[in-house]
Design goal:
The protein is α/β, with parallel strands linked by helices and 228 residues long. It is built from eight helices and seven strands, in the order αααββαββαβααβαβ. It has a seven-stranded mixed sheet, with helices on both faces. α5 links the parallel β4 (112-118) and β5 (140-151). The protein is globular. The structure holds S-adenosylmethionine.
Length: 228
């Protein structure tokens, strides 16, 4: 997996853009929606606003990080792809990055208030999903929050994008029920999931409608989060 994403260190954004071109939307539309969701999560989950130590697991080249500027007190990013981490560091000097090779995350117990992983779990072999969640839990302090953002396998346009994405050939998609079950099996509490990226518009009416329909598995992606 590390080698695969090492090879996309210079053209990751272009590869994603190519796979979603049929939608008429740019990569930034999706990144802004994810960043807004994470900002909202901080508030809804009662994390200290402005004082959150956050970790992005599987951050890749750090595409999401410019959109998270000012959202947290500190932001760390880590990935198994060393080349992606080098590129992320060049592009985002305010974020602290680490590459790692072992299943264990390179951080101490309870080091973060929030850990999130965006479009990562479907690249982790299913046999390692529980270990991935256990590690996410280990690095979050008691009362902190973990969140994954994943493709919704029930959305046909998401399926098409995955089919067209050159680095998604081995992806194993998981639905929100499976994500909730993984959070539950690894000891998390207050597990919630919501679907988003349903409508191709950032207007407030579209966002309100999307929030109303979030329990249904309609949106292109979903977020599942829980407390430690
Ligand atoms: C589709 S990219 C997503 C990158 C970034 N999170 C984003 O949303 O733009 C998937 C990333 O997960 C990383 N990855 C795969 N398995 C991983 C693991 N076990 N631990 C950490 N990162 C992993 C890959 O190296 C790659 O950078």
């Amino acid at each position: 997996m590390a080698e695969l994403f090492d090879s996309y260190k210079s053209n990751y954004g272009e590869a994603v853009a190519g796979s979603i071109r049929f939608s008429g939307l740019g990569h930034d539309f999706f990144l802004i929606a994810k960043a807004n969701l994470l900002r909202r999560l901080v508030v809804e989950r009662g994390l200290r606003q402005g004082g959150v130590r956050a970790l992005d697991i599987g951050c890749g080249v750090g595409s999401l990080h410019p959109y998270l500027e000012g959202a947290f007190e500190s932001l760390d990013g880590c990935d198994v792809s060393e080349q992606s981490i080098l590129r992320a560091g060049q592009d985002n000097p305010c974020v602290t990055y680490r590459a790692y090779t072992t299943p264990r995350l390179p951080y101490g117990d309870g080091a973060f208030d929030l850990a999130f992983a965006s479009c990562v779990v479907h690249h982790v072999p299913p046999a390692s999903w529980l270990d991935f969640f256990r590690e996410m839990r280990r690095v979050v302090r008691a009362g902190g929050v973990a969140c994954i953002i994943e493709h919704n396998p029930y959305n046909p346009l998401t399926r098409l994008a995955v089919l067209r994405c050159p680095f998604d050939q081995d992806a194993v998609l998981l639905n929100a029920a499976k994500a909730r079950s993984l959070f539950q099996q690894t000891g998390f509490q207050d597990i919630r999931s919501e679907h988003f990226l349903l409508l191709p518009s950032a207007r407030s009416f579209a966002k309100k409608l999307e929030r109303l329909l979030a329990p249904l598995p309609l949106g292109a992606q979903y977020a599942c989060s829980a407390h430690v």
